[in-house]
Design goal:
four-stranded antiparallel sheet; 2 domains; 394 residues; binds flavin mononucleotide; NADH Oxidase
């Protein structure tokens, strides 16, 4: 009897261990990001055989909201590319005007034109003019036409930084970047309708940090925003392989022990995920030697949204090329849009204007910069063929 109980216990332990082993494998508990969802980071330069499509390998590695990858590309005859907003890949009430979607498209255009120049084209960009409107239809919409005239191949350190640029949500050191960083970033980001403002003074940074935390609390208290964000959170290896998009725990900037535990345990519900986000925002993400904002004249102007996105991509590539880490922290502007959608009184727009000391401008993007404790990992990408526009779209 005693023997058979021991055998039973042994068999039970074996099944448990096998089950645990399966879960560890299935969820990729010890695995760092690798495999097909990350392959586009290795093929980022494409090949001569790709022709006009070649710079698109770099375009799809751009920053974009929640890694929704809201883009489609159409190569027309032999000399132009049309960029479309794939508007079904939206964040709903988190981005009710699709303003962030257009910033992300601007980021992709920046990578595209940098790569095109290196490969010997002279790209000429014509953004589609117009205003962003509330909850637009989901059909793809052309947002820019890019003519690719022949040119001379060139070298570009920002192009070379493309595969090394990753959003870093972890701890930043208490080390001031030199004053040249602010000057360099300001120069790289500026444009007639785009300005960048840096906050290095501790008081101003504290006020901005409070605003970001306040906005995060509002967002997680808004059931619709929380649900719309949760749709793009991917848990475990399988989900990442199936979708090749979204935010996963590998990219959350958490310590590796927390990441492993998070993958092993059952999936967290949206409320628990939100609480982690808030805690991490307070403890880690609002702390950096530099906080700042990208400003435009009109945040709902389509061309200005693209230009602001291009500015962020240039800044983040400059950061990557010089060993700096960067993270967008857009909660306050997300609240401005959500309040506008609901016709609610808003204080965030005014607070951002006061903090950035720019009355005739409005913030469309908030970020932090600094030296990170640990490098960030790449995020998944869909294959280029999946984002080439096939006929049938309007
Ligand atoms: C318009 C825009 C808004 C973003 N907002 C945030 C944000 O508020 N918090 C954050 O951690 N990352 C934010 N990101 C970063 C994206 O989540 C990130 O670019 C995406 O997941 C792809 O990852 P990668 O930048 O490492 O390639 C934003 C990016 C863009 C372009």
């Amino acid at each position: 009897m005693a023997i058979s109980r021991r055998v039973l216990i042994g068999a039970g332990a074996g099944v448990l261990a096998a089950g645990l082993g399966y879960r560890i494998w299935d969820r990729g508990v010890f695995a760092s990001p690798s495999g097909e969802p990350y392959a586009p980071w290795d093929h980022w330069q494409g090949g001569v055989i790709d022709g006009l499509k070649r710079p698109l390998h770099a375009a799809i590695l751009a920053a974009n909201p929640h890694d929704t990858q809201p883009w489609l590309f159409e190569v027309n005859a032999s000399d132009s590319i049309t960029v479309y907003a794939d508007r079904i890949r939206n964040l709903g009430s988190f981005d009710p005007f699709r303003r962030e979607m257009h910033l992300g498209l601007g980021c992709a255009i920046e990578n595209l034109v940098r790569a095109a120049q290196v490969f010997g084209y002279t790209p000429y960009i014509r953004p589609v003019a117009g205003k962003l409107t509330l909850s637009p239809p989901d059909e793809p919409k052309a947002i820019a036409h890019i003519t690719m005239d022949p040119g001379q191949p060139s070298r570009d350190p920002l192009f070379e930084a493309i595969p090394n640029r990753h959003t870093n949500r972890g701890l930043y050191r208490d080390r001031e970047p030199g004053s040249g960083v602010v000057t360099g970033m300001t120069a790289v980001a500026g444009d007639e309708n785009v300005r960048v403002v840096f906050l290095s003074d501790p008081g101003a940074r504290r006020d901005m940090a409070d605003l970001i935390i306040d906005a995060t609390q509002r967002i997680i208290g808004d059931a619709q925003m929380s649900a719309d964000s949760a749709r793009w959170i991917r848990t475990g290896r399988r989900e990442v392989e199936d979708h090749r998009d979204g935010i996963s725990i590998d990219n959350a900037g958490l310590p590796s022990s927390t990441v492993m535990l998070g993958k092993l345990l059952p999936d967290l519900d949206a409320a628990t995920q939100d609480q982690y986000w808030l805690d991490n925002t307070k403890s880690t993400q609002v702390h950096a030697p530099l906080l700042g904002a990208i400003l435009v004249k009109d945040r709902l102007d389509m061309a200005q949204a693209l230009a602001a996105g291009r500015a962020w991509q240039r800044m983040h590539l400059t950061a990557a090329a010089t060993g700096l880490a960067a993270q967008p922290l857009n909660q306050p502007v997300e609240c401005v849009d959500r309040n506008a959608q609901l016709g609610r009184h808003d204080t965030f727009r005014h607070d951002l204007q006061k903090l950035t000391n720019a009355n005739d401008w409005e913030a469309t993007f908030v970020f932090r910069l600094g030296y990170a404790e640990r490098p960030a990992l790449p995020s998944p990408r869909r294959p280029l063929d999946d984002v080439m526009k096939s006929s049938g779209y309007a």
